[in-house]
Amino acid sequence: MVNVTNVAPPNNPPFWSNNLTDIPSVFSPTAKSLFNVTWQDDVSISTVFLESNFTGNAINYTMDPLADNVFNYSAVLPAGSFYWRSYANDSQGNWSSTPEWDFTIAKADPGLSLSAQPAGQRLMARRPM
């Protein structure tokens, strides 16, 4: 007689660690904001999202797998105050999320200064002698 025991796989939700984020403090049209988070699971991770309000509304963006369970989302973001968090699900349909993190990207100094002559004043040019 052979005893056969069916053992169900663990059914724990994914868990996160290592929020490694690099966000510019001042807007630059060439500087990407980098969002990295490590997700682990007792079975396997299926999908990882980054949720944020970069556009004014909460939107989910798919995070790309890098290595060693690290997931990344990178983009040039506008100036403003935002939040982000990450969600992950595993192959058994369990979901989990990170806390919400707030951040601000300041407006860049325009680097251009304009001045105007008050109305009614004449400008006089002098030729150097």
What is the secondary structure topology, with strand pairs?
Blueprint: E1 15-22, E2 33-40, E3 45-52, E4 59-62, E5 64-65, E6 70-75, E7 80-90, E8 95-97, E9 101-105
From the spread of the alpha carbons, the general shape counts as rod-shaped
Count of helical stretches: 0
Q: Nearest-angstrom radius of gyration? A: 26 Å
- And the CATH topology? Immunoglobulin-like
Q: Stretches where pLDDT falls below 50 for ≥5 residues?
A: none
The chain-level mean pLDDT equals 88
Strand segment tally: 9
Q: Which percent range describes the beta-strand content?
A: 35-45%
Range of helix content: under 10%
Give a quick account of the main beta sheet: strands, pairing sense, barrel closure: 5 strands, antiparallel
Per CATH, the architecture is: Sandwich
What is the count of distinct domains? Answer: 1
Q: Specify the structural class.
A: mainly beta
CATH level-1 class: Mainly Beta
H/E element string?
EEEEEEEEE
In angstroms, what separates the terminal alpha carbons? Answer: 117 Å
Care to describe what's here?
The chain has 129 residues and is an all-beta fold. The protein has a single domain (15-105), classed as Immunoglobulin-like (Sandwich), CATH 2.60.40.650. Helix content is 0%, strand content 43%. The chain has no helices and 9 strands. The protein has strands spanning 15-22, 33-40, 45-52, 59-62, 64-65, 70-75, 80-90, 95-97, 101-105. Strands 3, 4, 7, 8 and 9 form a 5-stranded antiparallel β-sheet that branches. The protein has a 4-stranded antiparallel β-sheet with strand order 1-2-6-5, with no helix packed on it. The radius of gyration is 26 Å and the shape is rod-shaped. 13% of the residues are buried.
